Amino acid sequence: APRIYVKTQLQLDEKANPPRYKGIVDCVKQTVRDHGVKGLYRGLSSLVYGSIPKAAVRFGMFEFLSNKMRDESGKLDSTQGLICGLGAGVAEAIVVVCPMETVKVKFIHDQTSANPKYRGFFHGVREIVRTQGLKGTYQGLTATVLKQGSNQAIRFYVMTALRNWYKGDNPQKTINPLVTGVFGAVAGAASVFGNTPLDVIKTRMQGLEAHKYKSTVDCAIKIMKHEGPAAFYKGTVPRLGRVCMDVAIVFIIYEEVVKVLNKVWKTD
User: Fold this and answer.
1) Which of helix, strand or coil describes residue 207?
2) pLDDT tens figures, 114-139
3) Residues 42/49, Cβ–Cβ less than 8 Å
4) Which one of 11, 107, 144, 227 is least enclosed by Cβ atoms within 10 Å?
5) Which candidate, 76, 253, 236, places its Cα nearest to that of 181?
6) Which ranges in 19-92 belong to alpha helices (H)?
7) Residue 88, C-beta contacts closer than 8 angstroms, at least 6 positions apart
8) Could you tell me if 235 and 7 are in contact, meaning their C-beta atoms sit under 8 angstroms apart?
9) If pLDDT is split at 50, 70 and 90, which confidence band does 43 have?
């Protein structure tokens, strides 16, 4: 959660304002100074509430699509993995990620104001819906679909390619959880470098200043024009650490759960 908070703050911070933070350490220092250590955990509740349904939709859709694409031996090639990952990312973006991320970003952005309006997760959701309607929880949908779609496409492509490389000619070969974790971390790192620009745009489109941008494309143009290309990689370092760990753990859990289900229900 602290990494997510810092990443979001750095992405919301604009050079034109001028910037509030000099970097990651300065962002942490200012937050702890003004709001205490608990300030780094703002937005955690929305993250926790969204993680379980997000993973369920992502892997559920991936399994649904991949089961239709696998060959007779059950193998899925890397290109098919990319397509299934893209479908999984788009599904989770529409069903779960966009509303949850919008609420999370609004919470964190609200924290930086002199008089925060939101007292907690449910109060924040009620206030957003009351003042902006349900569409208030769906800001930046295009950017979120692009971000999640590319995110999961990259992750599942890399993961599928590494898994197939490891198994070689033996599709039944089991993979040690530690190896799965390493593969997941590599896939996570690839997705960070591949789609951080979309993550920055998504964060801006969901912040309290989103009204400044006419569309996703307009947001990208304005960031490039006023802040330069480096702005598209704000929050990369805190995001890299979190994502590598997160993807590694999630893929280990996913692989182990699939192994158990295959034994219990013979789903192969």
Assistant:
1) coil
2) 777 877 667 877 888 888 887 877 87
3) no
4) 227
5) 253
6) 24-35, 44-69, 78-92
7) 57, 58, 59, 61, 62, 65, 152, 156
8) yes
9) very low
Q: State the burial class of residue 177 (Cβ atoms within 10 Å of its Cβ: 0-12, 13-18, 19+).
A: middle
- pLDDT (mean) for 221-249: 85
Are the beta carbons of 61 and 38 closer than 8 angstroms? Answer: no
Structure tokens, 68: 């239709």
Which of 217, 253, 2, 221 has the alpha carbon at shortest distance from 108? 2
- Whole-angstrom Cα distance, residue 152 to residue 57? 12
45 by Cβ neighbours in 10 Å (0-12 / 13-18 / 19+) ranks as middle
Phi-psi region of 53 (alpha: psi -120 to 50; beta: other; left: phi over 0): alpha
Distance of CA 256 to the CA centre of its chain: 22
User: Which amino acid, 265?
Assistant: W
Question: What is the token pair recorded at 228?
Answer: 């330069």
The span from the CA of 251 to the CA of 202, in Å, is: 25
Q: What is the C-alpha separation between 33 and 241, in angstroms, rounded? A: 24
Tokens 């990689």 sit at which residue? 233
Structure token digits, residue 242: 């979190």
Burial class from Cβ neighbours inside 10 Å (0-12, 13-18, 19+) for residue 180 reads: buried
What's the DSSP call for residue 173? -
Region 147-154: mean pLDDT is 93
